[in-house]
Specification:
The complex is a heterodimer. By secondary structure, chain A is mostly helical. Helix content of chain A is about 70%, strand content about 5%. Chain B has a single domain, classed as Orthogonal Bundle (ABC transporter involved in vitamin B12 uptake, BtuC). Classes of the chains: A mainly alpha, B mainly alpha.
Chain lengths: ~290, ~350
């Protein structure tokens, strides 16, 4: 029981962390709420299905192609649509929402709304402290941790990471320091899309694919990033595991009330925000200059 | 007295093309039932009744989020709370629509005040995401007690508002016009009657400065949430009685986002923007039912293109084409005039040379 909750929470938390870190990163750097973020997750999951099942490509090739294609779509989305209206915050939110709808409808047209299954990477399971965990789930968790470690190294150890963090702190001053802010925004968007795509690829085999699969994780990661503090990468990482444990608790303690998991996760978010309005690790942004 | 009114009417309505258009629009609304008849007429009236309710709903969002700057991503909460309250009162206690709709609106006010508690401490994207949570939490509660709330199916079998579709239509038009005019007056920054308009603008632009100027911003934020909840509640309660059902779709994320799309499409912070947005987008969605597969795709595509090329909204874009503000006395003029109608200043300095 307790073991089950812990293992489920960790595995779910890994995927949520991948999604939430990307969402938080793009918010921190570009101050935009990208409601199409989980669409990249959906696109990557569908991509792996399309390449592996429909075109009969080897699994590795379809994974790589799916990741590349999704990242490219992310970059194009930013270049063609978001970049032009970046000054109007509400417009950005709406345009990403409309794009999410476009992606969803395109997937319905291409694959119909029937639930589909993607091929699994590895079969079999392993018994840890009395709970059966499939290798697929372990792989998901491992990849999530490795990728997040990579992101942390990128942000804290490389020149690009310094540039990204500088832009997040103050884009005008970063611009004065010779950082090409537009390019940094594009790179961050590509990074965020790639993170979402990785989450989508690794989780695809354990889920049924359907065109509306982006809405539920979107609500969850919004709860996570608000809980952890918008724009704080560390906060989203920890928030992801908190929300994932809440979800696992609800699912295990009342199996008949599994549909309540969203409501409970959001309730936790509201309660924490009432105590700490800027989230657990909130970055208190100074008022944006005029 | 009468002559004075007539003169005001001439100066403040006829001379400003935007208001003239609004007047023509309201008058045309009253004559629509004369032109559409029969069963297809009933269908068109149904679309217009829905549009009227969504207009109230969207304008209330504009008052709260556009004017006061409290970005609300869960506006469906007020709509849904009012719809469920109305449905419960009507089904269990047998109250009639004239009693349940005002009480539904009051339930919307209470929901607004409850949402306002975190709103007092949060701002910007935090507020947007927290407000997003409330309708979803309520949805969870509704699914948890299916015996009382109807669960997934919702509560159906409410009594009708009136016997005929035409009467329904006229009631909805009158309620819509009165609500929109009230909200327009409440947000009118240059009004000498009510102070709320200018205070709402001040809170949106800079809350700290507003507080430093001696404005009790907490009281005004509460007021904005209460007013928005009231009008969204009217829309929700009316919708429940007209559809004769209150269901989970009244609380879903789609409805909250829909209202934002309508408002921003028409033009945020303008009151007439959401009216235009609803009256263009809602009928468009209905007519797109002839191509069900690509209906949502076309809709989303239109929204994307529109946001790219007219980010201010369509109504504001049109207004800028037909109206011109005098550079000296800030009075609105028709765009084709060369000089201001009050102070004779040249409106187009460079064009005149």
């Amino acid at each position: 029981m307790v073991e089950g909750i812990i293992i489920q929470g960790l595995i779910k938390g890994g995927t949520y962390a991948l999604l939430a870190v990307g969402f938080s990163l793009i918010f921190g750097v570009a101050r935009m709420i990208n409601l199409a973020h989980t669409c990249f997750y959906m696109l990557a999951a569908y991509g792996i299905y399309a390449f592996a099942r429909l075109f009969d490509m080897p699994l590795i090739a379809s994974i790589v192609l799916s990741l590349l294609a999704t990242t490219l779509i992310g970059i194009l989305t930013y270049r063609l649509f978001i970049d032009r209206v970046r000054e109007h915050h509400v417009t950005v939110m709406l345009i990403t929402l409309a794009l999410a709808m476009v992606f969803q409808e395109c997937m319905i047209l291409a694959f119909s709304s029937e639930p589909l299954g993607a091929p699994s990477f590895v079969n079999g399971y392993w018994t840890i402290i009395g709970v059966k965990v499939s290798y697929q789930n372990l792989l998901t968790f491992g990849i999530a941790l490795a990728v997040l470690l990579g992101v942390w190294a990128l942000l804290s150890k490389t020149r690009l990471g310094v540039a990204i963090r500088a832009t997040a702190q103050d884009s005008e001053i970063a611009n004065l320091m010779g950082i090409n802010v537009r390019r940094i925004l594009l790179v961050t968007m590509a990074l965020a899309a790639a993170l979402a795509a990785i989450a989508g690829v690794v989780i695809a085999p354990t889920l049924t694919l359907e065109p509306r699969m982006w809405t539920s994780p979107l609500v969850m990661i919004m709860a996570i990033v608000v809980l952890g503090g918008l724009g704080s990468v560390k906060g989203s990482f920890i928030g992801a595991f908190i929300i994932a444990f809440v979800e696992a608790l609800v699912v295990f303690l009342m199996p008949s009330g599994a549909f309540l998991k969203d409501a409970f996760a959001l309730l936790v978010m509201v309660l924490i925000l009432l105590i700490r309005p800027e989230g657990l690790f909130g970055v208190v942004f100074e008022e944006e200059r005029l | 007295m009468l002559r004075r009114l007539l003169k005001d009417f001439q100066g403040d309505v006829l001379a400003i093309p935007g208001r003239l258009l609004a007047l023509i629009f309201f008058v045309v609304l009253f004559f629509i039932p004369l032109f559409v008849q029969g069963s297809s007429g009933n269908y068109y009236l149904r679309i217009f009744i829905f549009a009227n309710m969504y207009v109230i709903f969207a304008v209330s969002w504009d008052l709260l989020s556009g004017y006061t700057g409290q970005l609300n991503f869960g506006h469906a909460l007020f709509f849904g709370v009012a719809a469920y309250t109305t449905a419960l009162l009507n089904l269990h206690l047998g109250w009639q629509p004239w009693a349940t709709i005002p009480i539904g609106a009051l339930a919307g006010v209470i929901a607004g005040l409850i949402v306002c508690l975190p709103a007092l401490r949060l701002r910007g994207p935090y507020l947007a995401l927290v407000t997003l949570a409330f309708p979803l939490i309520l949805l969870g509660i509704i699914f948890a007690f299916p015996n009382f709330t109807g669960g997934e199916l919702g509560l159906s079998g409410l009594s009708r508002i009136s016997e005929s579709r035409t009467t329904d239509y006229y009631i909805s038009v009158v309620v819509m016009i009165v609500s929109v005019l009230l909200m327009w007056k409440l947000t009118d920054a240059s009004s000498s009657l009510v102070r709320t308009g200018i205070v709402f603008h001040a809170i949106r632009e800079d809350e700290i400065t507003a507080r430093a100027s001696g404005i009790n911003t907490i009281r005004y934020k509460l007021l904005a949430f209460a007013v928005a909840g009231f009008f969204a509640g009217i829309a929700g309660a009316f919708h429940a009685h007209f559809m004769r059902i209150a269901g989970p779709s009244n609380l879903q994320l789609t409805l909250s986002f829909q209202v934002i799309i309508w408002t921003v499409f028409g033009g945020i912070t303008s009151i007439y923007g959401p009216v235009v947005g609803v009256y263009i987008l809602f009928p468009l969605m209905e007519f797109l039912r002839v191509v069900p597969e690509v209906r949502n795709l076309i809709f989303a595509g239109i929204v994307v293109l529109m946001l790219l090329f007219m980010p201010e909204g369509i109504a504001v874009w049109v207004r800028d084409k037909i109206e011109r503000e005098c550079p000296r006395c800030k009075l609105s003029n028709m765009a084709f005039r060369k000089t201001c109608r009050a102070c004779n200043t040249r409106l187009y300095e460079h064009a005149a040379d």
